[in-house]
């Protein structure tokens, strides 16, 4: 995390156990096509179960198309394809039993802004880093500043060549 981000990170003043008692909103996990979905979903599922709240899996979808979306590994054509993508990730990486899982696709050009909006009412927002470097990516850094709930940033781990596409 850069030094510029550090002053904006909120540190709870009360022990973590008090947060468990007050948790009411879902744990929101922001997934993408970067190969980090398994770690994100498992972390989110563990936290939702611990807090006794639902798990909400969110994918931020935009209308971008190559060559304008170099940051995506694939471009999803429409919201239906984006929902199928989320269903595939949930099906591949979350086992039963577990917390109730809500799935959502948010259509937005600004992922950080959309995730900040989604954070309203959430118990926790789980986002991932986009690379295996020490620096927090632009979206994660912006979410740390703008989110209205606690945020967990899950480190990126390079995928094995033998892992499935999603």
TrEMBL record:
It comes from the Bacteria. Coiled coil: none annotated. InterPro entries: Rossmann-like_a/b/a_fold, UspA. Residues 26-155 form the UspA domain. Gene3D superfamilies: HUPs. This is Universal stress protein family protein. The lineage of its organism: Bacteria, Bacillati, Actinomycetota, Actinomycetes, Micromonosporales.
